[in-house]
Design goal:
alpha+beta; four-stranded antiparallel beta sheet; single chain; aminoacyl-tRNA deacylase activity; YbaK protein; five-stranded mixed beta sheet; 11 strands
């Protein structure tokens, strides 16, 4: 199958390649109930040494910068309590951690979660964290521009491989909330 964007030699429906995904991501596809059928979400094999967004887009197609989204784990703190959440913004944007995220989490302070926390809590590899398969109790804050993008390139849970999904499918994920102003720049 041909990928709808980028220069990838082949794309597979994600449910057909569950062995290429981390356990939480594979489990999310097994339990998929979104408005977009799981078979329309695609997996493309990629070189893990090219996983960083700018390098990745240079190699696999410059148009990918406008269609790529980054998923980052954040920690909000208030009164000794820490709340973890994930944020999804287009790669050309920065996450407004100190504004939109802090307010949404009701935190006094918010920051990017340490690498060990992000990977340990998600069961995913750093550089491949994806909104699909996150812990169910977490808020998933999504910039509306991501959902409005026809096809979005996101992580697969591993540094090797990416998922190409209809943007609107991301709004159906557990804990998903559209947050205006989440992405800046």
């Amino acid at each position: 199958m041909q990928a709808p964007l980028g220069n990838f030699p082949h794309a597979d429906p994600a449910p057909d390649v569950l062995d290429q995904l981390t356990a939480p991501v594979a489990d999310a596809f097994r339990a998929w109930r979104g408005s977009v059928p799981a078979g329309q979400l695609l997996y493309v094999d990629t070189d893990p040494d090219l996983a960083d967004t700018a390098v990745f887009a240079e190699h696999y197609g410059p148009g990918l910068l406008d269609a790529s989204a980054n998923c980052v784990v954040v920690a909000g703190k208030r009164g000794g309590e820490t709340t973890l959440a994930a944020c999804l913004v287009l790669s050309r944007s920065l996450v407004d951690v100190n504004g939109a995220v802090r307010r949404r989490l009701g935190a006094r302070k918010a920051s990017f979660a340490p690498r060990e926390t992000a990977t340990g809590e998600t069961g995913m590899e750093y550089g491949g964290i994806t909104p699909i398969g996150l812990p169910a109790a977490w808020p998933l804050l999504i910039d509306p521009a991501v959902v409005d993008t026809a096809w979005v390139l996101i992580g697969s849970g591993r540094r090797r491989g990416k998922l190409i999904v209809p943007g609107k499918a991301l709004a159906d994920l557990p804990g998903a909330e559209l947050v205006e102003g989440l992405g800046t720049g």
